[in-house]
Amino acid sequence: MILRITFICAVKGLGLIPGVVGRFDSSNGLRVPHIGWNALQTTKDTEILDDVGGRHVYFVHSYRVMPSDANNEWISSICNYGDSFISSITRGNVHAVQFHPEKSGDVGISILKKFLDPSSSSKTKKSAIGKASRLAKRVIACLDVRANDKGDLVVTKGDQYDVREQSNEKEVRNLGKPVDLAGQYYKDGADEVYACLQNKHAFALFGITVVVFMLNYLCLHMYAKKILRYTSENVFVPLTVGGGIRDFTDGNGRYYSSLEVASEYFRSGADKISIGSDAVYAAEEYLRTGVKTGKTSLEQISRVYGNQAVVVSIDPRRVYVRSPDDVEFKTIKVSSPGPSGEEYAWYQCTVNGGREVRPIGAFELAKAVEELGAGEILLNCIDCDGQGDGFDIDLIKLVSNAVMIPVIASSGAGAVEHFSEVFEKTNASAALAAGIFHRKEVPILSVKQHLLQNGIEVRACDGH
Fold first, then answer.
1. What is the DSSP string of 52-100?
2. Which end of the chain is less crowded, N or C, counting CB atoms within 10 A of the terminal residue's CB?
3. In the annotation, is 25 catalytic?
């Protein structure tokens, strides 16, 4: 049998395997949860793991068991994150893993096939990308999905959230079908796929919501389930969905909690969900009262599914000021002066797709949502979106230094050099791009080869 090891809290278990479960120690700067592709080192010969030593596999967890003399005979592989911890055990016909083989690309599929057929001689494809040695920086492909004027769901992208063509027809820019692009990005080597609904009126057009990996608020539609099932069967990297995850009441007066909505996403194939505006409102209230009510969508979903399953999307705008004393929020000394020579700036958060500003800074919001249960932050700089001039290094440095959870850099990538810059100058754990991948201006493989050449570890692109 094969098992997934899930460690939740330090309580007495069955005692079948010697060892103590503990949480990763973040006091020395380690980011917890441990999210991403990390190197696997095998410690004994097993048919299941015979060709995956020195490869990256996908982890997402906050607790681990350390190797010891008492459990040494059980250990089949270890992984290093701060310290070496047990990543798999083998004894007799029992195999258990801490990582997620079903989300570990070709490497994980090889493990599962060998469990089903130990005599299988299939080997995972080796890559020129290099041998795994530590936690890799992630390259994430984002699908911005809208319903166009004909009611079709398309992947789109535009400058400063203007997604319509500049022709006379002014049609919504169509860069491809969501499911097809998701599958292609997996083949191209994306470490994760992130999908976000960009227009809420899609609900009215369909009566339901069908967005790549998302189900509607009102019911489980058979077509949507088929899309999700197909995607999960063909995309073996983590899938994150976002857009509209909040409490709501339908036309018949039926109330749906955000937890119910998120639950449908998870049951339909999502690995993580992303919360935007709702998390901003929750953080504002928390900072105002100092009370965690446990009733916000962020708190509820995190409590039920774990903080590693919840991403908070932060969408700030840069606001220049002459002095840090001009505002009550955290400011930075900017690398480039403002339009009137200002040397400082703060980042004002927005909601509703960047259309409405809120009285809270990105620094304050990030720290608040971390306390409320977020396991990861997606950081989008509205000023840089679609510009192709690079990520906002000042913003990403500010937020990634403020929290102890992983931060995903987003908005502004236009060249491979922008990815190495953000990883070299900030503590970002991942970098996300959309338009340059959709338009095939910058291939994912080129990004990874460039990062490797600059001494930045990345996961091998399966098949390359």
1. -TTEEEEEEESEEE---TTTGGGEEEEEEESEEEEEEEEETTEEEESS-
2. N
3. no
